[in-house]
Amino acid sequence: MADGAWVRVASKAEVAEGAVLGVRVGERDIALYHLPGGEFHATDNVCTHEYALLSEGWLENGCIECPLHAAQFDVRTGKAMCAPADVDLQVFELKVEGEDLLVRLPA
Q1: Could you tell me the fold of the domain covering 5-105?
Q2: pLDDT tens across 11-34, in order?
Q3: How many CB atoms lie within 10 A of CB 18?
């Protein structure tokens, strides 16, 4: 995403290591992921297969598992890893500034 606004969505402390946090930014549901080693990522929070919040799923080995039908997505790339999902998640550029997590929203 070349253009768009950077928006503070959470503090680093709000997303425990190995956890996922769902946040609402305007009309968007975004999932924030904290992988081991201090790596943070952001994707759409809604499964592309059927409406379910990914932040209510399970994060393991860099993949989020949907709580509804067990579809899995790579949180780094948004790639759908297995059925029933066959559409990738939208990934948002994320940066850390001090203790804040910011995502770039599309224009």
Answers
A1: Rieske Iron-sulfur Protein (2.102.10)
A2: 999 999 999 999 999 889 999 999
A3: 11
> DSSP character for 29?
E
Domains in the chain: boundaries? 5-105
- Contacts of 15 by beta carbon, 8 Å cutoff, 6+ apart: 21, 32, 33, 34, 40, 101
At residue 15, what are phi and psi to the nearest 5 degrees?
A: -120, 95
pTM greater than 0.90 (yes/no) = yes
Q: Interior CA angle at 26 toward 21 and 28, to 5°? A: 55
List residues bridging with 31 in a β-sheet: 22, 43
